[in-house]
Specification:
The protein folds into two domains: 4-121, MutM-like, N-terminal (N-terminal domain of MutM-like DNA repair proteins, Alpha-Beta Barrel); 133-278, Helicase, Ruva Protein, domain 3 (Orthogonal Bundle). By secondary structure, the chain is of the alpha+beta class. The protein has helices at 4-18, 118-121, 133-147, 153-158, 168-177, 192-208, and strands at 25-28, 43-49, 52-57, 61-66, 72-77, 90-95, 99-104, 108-113, 242-246, 253-257.
Length: 285
């Protein structure tokens, strides 16, 4: 699933492209929005909140989308072959005279009054990438974090009602950076504020890079420290990267970690194997 850094990157690109003039084409291929007419409206800004995109229009409405697992927004020059918007999974096409934005495989789409945006995102925790997060968002995120008590820290970081924007990539990468075992009880993590700010720093780096990365390297297979590197050596110590499961079915997710750099407390139970699509990913070393 695209995480907060990918959505922030999409917001920046869409905002730069679609705010240059009124929409000359607007197709919302979504049952609840198929009759909504946005032609002639101007996009004022495109804002991301966690994993949600909010396109604010000059008539006081907001187009809200969520990418879910496979969704994307791509841009093409209006009038070119790539701007046709054809395809069985295209859910939205928005075009100005210069640029066409095509939303493919979107998981959510709503058009609401801008004043009602909170009905869509108000239940979420603070956006980890918000400009004011270090001063305004962090204290609230830590308050919500504390309420989770002994819940495994990896599970807490994935909880969008605690902190909006992290998914399995940034949960695993930030815990690795802080040398924290993903199943450590949240109330036993020594410095949760530093952990959360580490996640923010890594995600900001990814937004600013040419391609999403937590290592600073955009080369193939070099963009992460532990995420999706099960069975490969740790870049720091050489130990084989392991993967386990956080959360319970049907919302379980993989947590990649280095058993040496992120040691489990003495006597801690071994985490369950991650089983994508019902199949074990493989035995532990």
């Amino acid at each position: 699933m695209p995480e907060g850094d990918i959505v922030r990157r999409a917001a920046l690109r869409l905002g730069a492209a679609l705010t240059d003039g009124p929409l000359v084409r607007a197709e919302l291929r979504w049952p609840d929005a198929a009759g909504v007419d946005l032609v002639g409206r101007t996009v004022l800004d495109v804002h991301s909140y966690g994993k949600h995109l909010l396109m604010r229009l000059d008539d006081g409405r907001t187009l809200h989308t969520h990418l879910r697992m496979e969704g994307t927004w791509r841009l093409a020059r209006t009038g070119t072959a790539g701007a046709g918007g054809r395809g069985a999974f295209v859910r939205a096409v928005l075009a100005t005279e210069r640029w066409t934005a095509i939303g493919d495989r979107l998981g959510m789409l709503h058009v609401v009054p801008t004043r009602d945006e909170r009905t869509l995102v108000g239940h979420l925790g603070p956006d980890v990438l918000a400009p004011d997060f270090p001063t305004a968002g962090l204290p609230e995120a830590l308050r919500r974090y504390a309420e989770r008590g002994a819940t495994p820290v990896g599970e807490v970081l994935l909880d969008q009602t605690v902190l909006a924007g992290l998914g399995t990539v940034w949960m695993s990468e930030s815990l690795y950076a802080r040398r924290t075992w993903p199943w450590t009880p949240a109330d036993e993590v020594a410095d949760p504020a530093t952990l959360v700010m580490t996640a923010r720093t890594l995600m900001e780096r990814s937004v600013a890079a040419d391609l999403p990365t937590s290592t600073g390297d955009s080369g193939r297979g070099l963009t992460s420290w532990v995420h999706a590197r099960h069975g490969r050596p740790c870049r720091r110590c050489g130990t084989t990267i392991d993967v386990g499961t956080v959360r319970r079915p049907p919302t379980e997710r993989p947590a990649f970690f280095c058993p040496t750099c992120q040691p489990a407390p003495p006597g801690a139970p071994e985490p369950g194997l991650w089983r994508p699509r019902g199949q074990a990913i493989g035995p532990r070393a």
